[in-house]
Design brief:
By secondary structure, this protein is mostly beta strands. It has 2 domains: about 15-60, no CATH class; about 60-100, Laminin, CATH 2.10.25. The chain contains no helices and 10 strands. It has a two-stranded antiparallel ribbon with strand order 1-2. InterPro entries: EGF (IPR000742), EGF-like_Ca-bd_dom (IPR001881), EGF-type_Asp/Asn_hydroxyl_site (IPR000152), EGF_Ca-bd_CS (IPR018097), Furin_repeat (IPR006212), NOTCH1_EGF-like (IPR049883). Belongs to the CRELD family. This is CRE2A protein.
Amino acid sequence: DLNECADSPCKDHQYCLNTEGSFACKACDASCVGCTGKGSEKCKTCASGYMKEDEKCTDIDECNLPEKVCVKENQDCVNTSGSYKCVCSEGFQDKDGTCVQT
């Protein structure tokens, strides 16, 4: 079997998997920018919203950062994979970008 992966035939956001007589390009983990294999521990660098922790790229919880990311009144932060979103607190609804009491 010839290792076709030696020539790096895959795109930047993929890794090469050598198979008998061929190869396959597989997508890198969402936490990676470039990778050498499957999973968040094989990232070349971490994607935005992720940081290297215990040799893996893990999600940054922006809602627990010392500096608040959701600064409008009556607004709560919700952490998402690689990011966050700001939502109106319970009992409030978004009206033209402002959280007003319902």
